[in-house]
Amino acid sequence: RIVHLNGEYLPEDQAKVSVFDRGFVMADAVYEVTSVLDGKLIDFPGHMARLARSLGELGIQNPHSDDEWLAIHREMVARNEITHGMVYLQVSRGNGGDRDFVYPPADTPPTVVLYTWQKPQLIDNPAAETGWKVCTLPDIRWHRRDIKTVQLLYPSMAKMEAKARGCDDAWLVENGLVTEGTSNNAYIVKGGAIITRALSNDILHGITRAAVLRFAREAQMTVEERSFTVEEAIAADEAFITSASAFVMPVVEIDGVRLGDGAPGKVSRRLREIYLEESRAAAI
Ligand code: PMP
Questions:
Q1: What UniProt keywords are attached to this protein's entry (predicted)?
Q2: How remote is the CA of residue 11 from the centroid of ligand 1, in Å?
Q3: Cα torsion at 261, 262, 267, 271 (round to 10°)?
Q4: Which domain holds residue 21?
Q5: Structure confidence by residue, pLDDT tens digits, 3-33
Protein backbone atom coordinates (compact mmCIF):
# COMPACT_ATOMS: atom_id res chain seq x y z
CA ARG A 1 0.00 0.00 0.00
CA ILE A 2 1.20 3.49 -0.86
CA VAL A 3 0.61 6.20 1.71
CA HIS A 4 1.04 9.96 1.50
CA LEU A 5 3.24 11.74 4.06
CA ASN A 6 3.97 15.47 3.73
CA GLY A 7 4.02 15.56 -0.06
CA GLU A 8 5.67 12.18 -0.60
CA TYR A 9 4.13 8.92 -1.80
CA LEU A 10 5.79 6.08 0.09
CA PRO A 11 5.35 2.36 0.78
CA GLU A 12 3.52 2.21 4.13
CA ASP A 13 6.51 0.76 6.02
CA GLN A 14 8.68 3.71 4.97
CA ALA A 15 6.34 6.46 6.21
CA LYS A 16 7.62 7.71 9.57
CA VAL A 17 6.17 10.40 11.85
CA SER A 18 8.02 12.00 14.79
CA VAL A 19 7.29 10.77 18.33
CA PHE A 20 6.98 14.49 19.18
CA ASP A 21 4.10 14.96 16.75
CA ARG A 22 1.21 16.77 18.46
CA GLY A 23 -1.25 14.42 16.77
CA PHE A 24 0.37 11.50 18.59
CA VAL A 25 1.00 13.22 21.92
CA MET A 26 -2.14 15.36 22.29
CA ALA A 27 -4.67 14.24 19.66
CA ASP A 28 -3.99 17.70 18.19
CA ALA A 29 -5.11 16.77 14.69
CA VAL A 30 -8.16 16.73 12.47
CA TYR A 31 -9.23 14.26 9.83
CA GLU A 32 -11.62 13.51 6.98
CA VAL A 33 -12.79 10.25 5.46
CA THR A 34 -14.03 10.33 1.89
CA SER A 35 -15.58 7.38 0.11
CA VAL A 36 -14.64 6.31 -3.40
CA LEU A 37 -17.11 4.66 -5.76
CA ASP A 38 -16.04 3.56 -9.25
CA GLY A 39 -12.71 5.28 -8.62
CA LYS A 40 -14.39 8.66 -7.98
CA LEU A 41 -14.63 10.78 -4.83
CA ILE A 42 -18.03 11.16 -3.19
CA ASP A 43 -19.07 14.55 -1.70
CA PHE A 44 -15.47 15.76 -2.02
CA PRO A 45 -16.08 19.56 -1.87
CA GLY A 46 -18.07 19.12 1.36
CA HIS A 47 -15.27 17.17 3.01
CA MET A 48 -12.69 19.81 2.06
CA ALA A 49 -14.94 22.63 3.31
CA ARG A 50 -15.30 20.86 6.67
CA LEU A 51 -11.54 20.17 6.81
CA ALA A 52 -10.86 23.89 6.32
CA ARG A 53 -13.34 24.72 9.08
CA SER A 54 -11.90 22.17 11.55
CA LEU A 55 -8.36 23.46 10.90
CA GLY A 56 -9.54 27.05 11.26
CA GLU A 57 -11.24 26.35 14.60
CA LEU A 58 -7.94 24.93 15.94
CA GLY A 59 -5.69 27.53 14.33
CA ILE A 60 -3.78 24.95 12.28
CA GLN A 61 -2.73 26.24 8.87
CA ASN A 62 -4.40 24.47 5.94
CA PRO A 63 -1.37 23.14 4.06
CA HIS A 64 -3.15 22.81 0.69
CA SER A 65 -5.69 24.47 -1.56
CA ASP A 66 -8.81 22.45 -2.45
CA ASP A 67 -7.33 21.81 -5.91
CA GLU A 68 -4.14 20.45 -4.38
CA TRP A 69 -6.14 18.25 -2.00
CA LEU A 70 -8.11 16.94 -4.95
CA ALA A 71 -4.93 16.11 -6.87
CA ILE A 72 -3.49 14.29 -3.82
CA HIS A 73 -6.70 12.30 -3.30
CA ARG A 74 -6.79 11.32 -6.97
CA GLU A 75 -3.15 10.29 -6.88
CA MET A 76 -3.85 8.08 -3.83
CA VAL A 77 -6.87 6.49 -5.50
CA ALA A 78 -4.85 5.80 -8.66
CA ARG A 79 -1.69 4.51 -6.95
CA ASN A 80 -3.68 2.17 -4.70
CA GLU A 81 -6.09 1.13 -7.49
CA ILE A 82 -9.16 1.91 -5.42
CA THR A 83 -12.44 1.11 -7.15
CA HIS A 84 -14.72 1.10 -4.12
CA GLY A 85 -13.08 2.16 -0.88
CA MET A 86 -12.06 4.97 1.44
CA VAL A 87 -9.47 7.73 1.61
CA TYR A 88 -8.37 8.79 5.11
CA LEU A 89 -6.75 12.20 5.53
CA GLN A 90 -5.23 13.58 8.72
CA VAL A 91 -3.56 16.92 9.42
CA SER A 92 -1.86 17.44 12.78
CA ARG A 93 -0.26 20.57 14.23
CA GLY A 94 3.12 18.92 13.61
CA ASN A 95 6.17 18.51 15.82
CA GLY A 96 5.54 20.14 19.21
CA GLY A 97 9.08 19.64 20.56
CA ASP A 98 9.35 19.27 24.34
CA ARG A 99 5.94 18.40 25.68
CA ASP A 100 4.03 21.62 26.21
CA PHE A 101 0.38 22.66 26.27
CA VAL A 102 1.40 25.83 24.46
CA TYR A 103 1.22 25.40 20.69
CA PRO A 104 4.51 25.37 18.78
CA PRO A 105 5.26 28.47 16.62
CA ALA A 106 2.63 29.16 13.94
CA ASP A 107 5.13 28.43 11.14
CA THR A 108 5.58 24.82 12.36
CA PRO A 109 4.70 22.66 9.35
CA PRO A 110 1.58 20.55 9.90
CA THR A 111 1.93 16.78 9.41
CA VAL A 112 -0.16 15.52 6.50
CA VAL A 113 -1.00 11.82 6.21
CA LEU A 114 -3.30 10.04 3.78
CA TYR A 115 -3.98 6.39 3.30
CA THR A 116 -6.62 4.35 1.52
CA TRP A 117 -8.35 1.03 1.91
CA GLN A 118 -10.49 -1.09 -0.36
CA LYS A 119 -14.14 -1.71 0.54
CA PRO A 120 -15.60 -3.83 -2.25
CA GLN A 121 -18.99 -4.08 -0.50
CA LEU A 122 -19.43 -0.36 -0.03
CA ILE A 123 -22.52 -0.30 -2.25
CA ASP A 124 -23.81 -3.86 -1.99
CA ASN A 125 -23.43 -3.81 1.76
CA PRO A 126 -25.27 -6.82 3.25
CA ALA A 127 -25.85 -4.81 6.47
CA ALA A 128 -28.07 -2.40 4.53
CA GLU A 129 -30.47 -5.30 3.82
CA THR A 130 -30.90 -6.23 7.48
CA GLY A 131 -30.23 -2.88 9.17
CA TRP A 132 -28.33 -2.05 12.34
CA LYS A 133 -29.23 -2.58 15.97
CA VAL A 134 -28.22 0.34 18.17
CA CYS A 135 -27.82 0.65 21.94
CA THR A 136 -27.99 4.01 23.71
CA LEU A 137 -25.09 5.15 25.89
CA PRO A 138 -24.32 8.45 27.64
CA ASP A 139 -22.60 11.10 25.52
CA ILE A 140 -19.63 12.13 27.66
CA ARG A 141 -17.54 13.63 24.83
CA TRP A 142 -16.24 17.21 24.94
CA HIS A 143 -18.43 20.10 23.80
CA ARG A 144 -16.82 20.86 20.43
CA ARG A 145 -18.06 17.82 18.52
CA ASP A 146 -18.39 20.03 15.43
CA ILE A 147 -14.57 19.91 15.07
CA LYS A 148 -13.52 16.64 13.49
CA THR A 149 -10.56 15.83 15.74
CA VAL A 150 -8.78 12.49 16.09
CA GLN A 151 -9.69 12.50 19.79
CA LEU A 152 -11.84 9.39 19.30
CA LEU A 153 -11.29 7.39 22.47
CA TYR A 154 -14.80 7.69 23.87
CA PRO A 155 -16.53 6.93 20.55
CA SER A 156 -14.27 3.88 20.33
CA MET A 157 -15.12 2.80 23.90
CA ALA A 158 -18.83 3.30 23.19
CA LYS A 159 -18.57 1.22 20.00
CA MET A 160 -16.93 -1.58 22.01
CA GLU A 161 -19.62 -1.41 24.69
CA ALA A 162 -22.34 -1.46 22.01
CA LYS A 163 -20.77 -4.55 20.42
CA ALA A 164 -20.51 -6.23 23.83
CA ARG A 165 -24.26 -5.65 24.20
CA GLY A 166 -24.97 -7.24 20.82
CA CYS A 167 -25.50 -3.95 18.97
CA ASP A 168 -23.87 -2.65 15.79
CA ASP A 169 -23.35 0.85 17.15
CA ALA A 170 -24.18 3.20 20.02
CA TRP A 171 -26.48 6.22 19.86
CA LEU A 172 -25.10 8.76 22.29
CA VAL A 173 -27.52 10.53 24.64
CA GLU A 174 -27.19 13.83 26.49
CA ASN A 175 -29.96 15.21 28.74
CA GLY A 176 -32.28 12.49 27.46
CA LEU A 177 -31.77 13.57 23.84
CA VAL A 178 -29.92 11.63 21.15
CA THR A 179 -26.90 13.56 19.84
CA GLU A 180 -25.50 11.19 17.18
CA GLY A 181 -23.92 7.76 16.64
CA THR A 182 -20.28 7.02 17.47
CA SER A 183 -19.30 7.89 13.90
CA ASN A 184 -22.52 8.89 12.16
CA ASN A 185 -25.56 11.16 12.38
CA ALA A 186 -28.83 9.76 13.79
CA TYR A 187 -32.36 10.06 12.38
CA ILE A 188 -35.85 8.81 13.12
CA VAL A 189 -38.89 8.77 10.85
CA LYS A 190 -42.37 9.38 12.27
CA GLY A 191 -45.53 9.83 10.21
CA GLY A 192 -43.36 10.27 7.10
CA ALA A 193 -41.29 13.11 8.64
CA ILE A 194 -37.52 12.74 8.82
CA ILE A 195 -36.30 14.01 12.20
CA THR A 196 -32.64 14.72 12.99
CA ARG A 197 -30.86 16.93 15.50
CA ALA A 198 -30.15 20.49 14.32
CA LEU A 199 -26.55 21.56 13.69
CA SER A 200 -24.67 23.01 16.67
CA ASN A 201 -21.42 22.35 18.55
CA ASP A 202 -23.11 19.22 19.99
CA ILE A 203 -22.70 17.11 16.83
CA LEU A 204 -20.45 16.71 13.85
CA HIS A 205 -21.85 18.45 10.79
CA GLY A 206 -22.07 15.36 8.61
CA ILE A 207 -21.34 15.82 4.94
CA THR A 208 -23.61 12.88 4.14
CA ARG A 209 -26.26 14.47 6.39
CA ALA A 210 -26.22 17.70 4.35
CA ALA A 211 -26.57 15.81 1.07
CA VAL A 212 -29.29 13.45 2.32
CA LEU A 213 -31.40 16.29 3.77
CA ARG A 214 -31.07 18.20 0.49
CA PHE A 215 -32.21 15.16 -1.53
CA ALA A 216 -35.06 14.50 0.92
CA ARG A 217 -36.32 18.08 0.55
CA GLU A 218 -35.97 17.92 -3.24
CA ALA A 219 -38.11 14.76 -3.14
CA GLN A 220 -40.79 16.72 -1.19
CA MET A 221 -40.20 14.76 2.01
CA THR A 222 -40.75 16.55 5.34
CA VAL A 223 -37.56 17.26 7.27
CA GLU A 224 -37.56 18.41 10.90
CA GLU A 225 -34.19 19.49 12.27
CA ARG A 226 -34.75 19.11 16.00
CA SER A 227 -33.62 16.96 18.92
CA PHE A 228 -35.49 13.78 19.83
CA THR A 229 -35.59 11.67 23.00
CA VAL A 230 -34.74 7.99 23.33
CA GLU A 231 -38.44 7.31 24.07
CA GLU A 232 -39.46 9.06 20.85
CA ALA A 233 -36.86 7.06 18.92
CA ILE A 234 -38.12 3.74 20.28
CA ALA A 235 -41.67 4.72 19.29
CA ALA A 236 -40.61 5.83 15.76
CA ASP A 237 -41.76 4.13 12.56
CA GLU A 238 -38.19 3.74 11.38
CA ALA A 239 -34.68 5.03 11.97
CA PHE A 240 -31.37 5.31 10.14
CA ILE A 241 -27.88 6.77 10.32
CA THR A 242 -25.71 8.53 7.74
CA SER A 243 -21.95 8.67 7.25
CA ALA A 244 -19.42 8.78 4.45
CA SER A 245 -18.69 5.06 4.86
CA ALA A 246 -22.18 3.68 5.57
CA PHE A 247 -24.09 6.21 3.38
CA VAL A 248 -27.67 5.71 4.59
CA MET A 249 -27.90 2.71 6.92
CA PRO A 250 -31.30 1.60 8.26
CA VAL A 251 -31.62 1.08 12.03
CA VAL A 252 -34.11 -1.65 12.95
CA GLU A 253 -33.71 -1.95 16.71
CA ILE A 254 -32.99 0.52 19.55
CA ASP A 255 -32.11 -0.83 23.03
CA GLY A 256 -33.64 -4.20 22.13
CA VAL A 257 -36.93 -2.68 20.90
CA ARG A 258 -37.78 -3.49 17.28
CA LEU A 259 -39.00 -0.62 15.11
CA GLY A 260 -42.02 -1.47 12.97
CA ASP A 261 -41.75 -5.01 11.64
CA GLY A 262 -38.01 -5.11 12.34
CA ALA A 263 -37.01 -4.71 8.67
CA PRO A 264 -35.38 -1.60 7.13
CA GLY A 265 -38.04 1.07 6.65
CA LYS A 266 -39.22 2.38 3.32
CA VAL A 267 -38.06 5.99 3.82
CA SER A 268 -34.60 4.76 4.85
CA ARG A 269 -34.35 2.43 1.86
CA ARG A 270 -35.51 5.13 -0.54
CA LEU A 271 -33.04 7.67 0.86
CA ARG A 272 -30.21 5.15 0.51
CA GLU A 273 -31.13 4.65 -3.16
CA ILE A 274 -31.46 8.38 -3.87
CA TYR A 275 -28.21 9.16 -2.08
CA LEU A 276 -26.25 6.48 -3.96
CA GLU A 277 -27.67 7.55 -7.30
CA GLU A 278 -27.21 11.31 -6.84
CA SER A 279 -23.83 11.21 -5.11
CA ARG A 280 -22.39 8.85 -7.72
CA ALA A 281 -23.63 11.12 -10.48
CA ALA A 282 -21.90 14.07 -8.79
CA ALA A 283 -18.69 12.19 -7.89
CA ILE A 284 -15.40 13.67 -9.13
N1 PMP B 1 -20.85 12.14 13.51
C2 PMP B 1 -19.65 11.68 13.92
C3 PMP B 1 -19.30 11.73 15.37
C4 PMP B 1 -18.74 11.15 12.97
O5 PMP B 1 -17.54 10.70 13.38
C6 PMP B 1 -19.12 11.08 11.61
C7 PMP B 1 -18.23 10.48 10.57
N8 PMP B 1 -16.90 10.81 10.67
C9 PMP B 1 -20.39 11.58 11.25
C10 PMP B 1 -21.22 12.10 12.23
C11 PMP B 1 -20.85 11.54 9.82
O12 PMP B 1 -20.19 12.50 9.04
P13 PMP B 1 -19.97 12.27 7.48
O14 PMP B 1 -21.33 12.08 6.88
O15 PMP B 1 -19.33 13.52 7.02
O16 PMP B 1 -19.11 11.06 7.33
A1: Amino-acid biosynthesis, Aminotransferase, Branched-chain amino acid biosynthesis, Pyridoxal phosphate, Transferase
A2: 28
A3: -160
A4: 2-118
A5: 999 999 999 999 999 999 999 999 999 999 9
